[in-house]
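Blackboard transcription, Thursday session:
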Amino acid sequence: MDKHKSTEKPEKELSSESRRDFLKTTSILTAIAVAPATVAKAAEFNLGEKMSTAFETTPVNLTVNGVKKQLNLEPRATLLDTLREQLDLTGTKKGCDYGQCGACTVHVNGQRVLSCLSLAIMHEGQEVTTIEGLAKGQELHPMQQAFIKHDGFQCGYCTPGQIMSAVACIQEGHANNEADIKEFMSGNICRCGAYPNIVKAIQEVKNGGRKS
Amino acid sequence: MTEAFFDKKDYKPLDRVDGRLKVTGTARYSAEYALPNMAYAVLVGSSIAKGTIKSIDSKAAERAPGVLAVISHLNAIKVPGYQPKGEHPSEPSTQGQPLRVFFDNKIVSNDQPIVAVVATSFEKARHAATLVKIQYHKEEHQTNLEANSEKAVLPASGKKNPKSPTADYDRGQKDAFESAAVKFEAEYVLPTEVHNPMELQAITAHWEADDKLTVYDKVQGTKMTQKNFAKEWNIPEANVKCIATFVGGAFGNGLHNWPHETAAIIAAKQVKRPVKLVLTREQMFTMVGYRPRTWQKIQIGASKDGKLVAINHQSIGQTSSYEEFTESTLQQTRMMYASPNVSTRYRILPLNVATPIWMRGPGEATGAFALESAMDEVAHAIGMDPVDFRLLNYTESDPDKNMPWSTKYLRECYEEGKKRIGWENRKLKPGLVRDGEWLVGYGMGTGTFGANRNSATVHAALDREGNLVMHCAITDIGPGTGTAMVQIASNTTGISTGNITFHLGSSEFPNAGLQGGSSTVNSVGPAVLAACNALKEQLITMAAAKGNTAFSSAKPDDLMIDNNELQLGGKSSKTTLGDLFKQNNMEKIETTNESKPDENRNKYSMNAFSMHFAKVHVHPFTGQVQVKKIVCCADAGTIVSPKTAASQMIGGATGGIGMALTEDAVMDHRFGRYVTKDFADYHVPVNADVPEIDVYFVNKPDLLADPVGSKGLGEIAIIGVAPAIGNAVFNATGKRIRELPITPDKLI
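(Written on the board underneath:)
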């Protein structure tokens, strides 16, 4: 509850309930708690959505692709769902929700993270980079260019995760030879089977000396 | 036959036209359309495989924050197209009647969708879904193929029509096998395999008006989907829009409209908001089809010098209790080799499971595992090189249809493949070649698939700046359809690929069939060609009408557009597009053209062929198999997009590695439920599993098949890969594994 008492009020990125709204709806909630079930049900139909949003959310500050975002999120919201459903950054993909496929790979403070296994509130104050934040304006990141050049994808669904992993793979120093690349890229599944081309793309960027 | 258009210019490798959208994360897939007031649906599946629903306690879920509706057969609005007698109105690609979601209390398979929880956020819907309590009247279920094989039946299509591909087939003498000098017999089992594209099946359903539906849907056919939902909701087809601009892989599982799609549409109608429904990875195993577990028995009779005398091949594949799923498991056995006597028996076994659906190289990939493994076994038995054995039994015409091939360049594939894999290093006797402590083996497998072609229509418009924009309803599940079509258009018109756009993936665009059965380039390609030629004719007419006599006798083939200038017979006509449009006072010209299969299909047997060679290492103590190299050789006609085509072959080989070594959907028959239900248990190949894959295309056009000369690629990319690996494992170890996947426990 302490978090709701914060007096700071930075610019909001998304519609969210203020503290006043919270107090207002809390009192309604209290009223509902002592009301008969039918009344509560009726109240829910009219107000439930707004109330629960205010009641269950927590303020979270993230920097996403260099932009500061103040969000009010349910604590159970994953970073992945937050990016996709709240921020409309759908480049980060949901492939399994269990951290088994790598499609949701993003960078948090420069390291690759499976955003489906990570709650958004765990990243308070941290810097998140998604595939949408990799290019510099119209200029593609060398890894994006290399994926196009070597046809490192077909359907394109695993591609953002592959590219985020590939960039991190070089930064981690895990791209020194083909065997290493294959091993350290094996957390990113490509069902279309573009693996050999993905390896070629990474080797080209590595050998081109471009690491970021 | 007119002069082939591809002679004018070779097809060069081209970066994917949608590559930039895909590498920047801006390509939008079905669950990625942000509609105002979106609601989220989560499906609850049954926990029994057969029975009825006794009760659904949804009180807690309904009261959970943000929940808009808990929908089941108890309160779902009536779907107007549902028929009272167990019929679903759609025209399923399978035989039988697709499941009618939320229709009644019957449970026909485990994890059948029976409740949809709809809420204002995904988190709320997911949580509330856990609060739904369901009680059942459980009945005894049957999910075990082997235990029930006695109950296998001839599919209805085979019963009805003795000429149906599923009907019993006999060529020559039925008992010829018995008197053959060399007799070989074996059984092969292919487990259930699951498509598992990386994109989870997803739909966003939006009723824009009471009788107007838009779906953003992960499907392989936008027109099929439009038609099915129009029937289901009893509204005009024009009122249904299906958008599938990007499809994150499918491999066949988008060839059918599934219950979750209707569930989302019902939910959207019921809560009066757009509804997004994304399946979980577990639900991908139970709700959107799979390659069915299939048992096969094969008998091959041969003379001592290796001439085939007889092949008898039978198979039993599982299907659901409500739809008859069939695939062409035995077709290639009838036509691949010059055996005078061939008998096939195709059976299906209805079980209390969900309906299968064609998975890449459907049927043929299953059948090829048995046929190509058995061919290897016979070659070994008579001491022949397996390639020589196949060449000895090579057939120059289709022995099944009794027609000449339109084209067949499989010999080139054998020769080139042998060179590239280093076949000369293979020893006839298994277990003789080593690399350090590893056993080394070489194997090969042949594949074939029909050069299918459907009718397709393309709209094309050319403006005065030389921009060519085309539209077609076809989808692209990954092979690079847009890229291939842009290349065909560029080669036909001379317009540079950068000035050509191909819009696809919407039912609003001109008609095309499904992206399936390796038919897209063969079907849509000719429509692109026709549209481009029609535009060229218009340009010629326009130029001739303005007194340019050079154009008066010109034909579309004579005309090319080079940098906005019209060229005739390779020479400048000194006329630019801009001038011509200006003279005619026009902004753009446009055309809509349909292209259909022609009568050549009645005169020739049309097939694409492939040849896969594999080199494997097998560890003698751990049984670990490492695929060291795969060579893919394809006779697929004209290759219009060399870069994306090569990727498709690599992808098919990768799928084949999965078939051969890792993929196995294991069911616990006590519950009729899969125990492998995510990527931790169901192993698809990862980067470290996939070696160098060398691709060779014969690249000779088949102009009898279609005017582009293409025979299709998607299926032959995988057919034959699994037996090639299995045969290589045998060559390395002397151990023959007849039940896939070849896991270490089977080798030690």
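Lecturer's comment: The CA atoms of residues 231 and 260 of chain B lie 17 Å apart.
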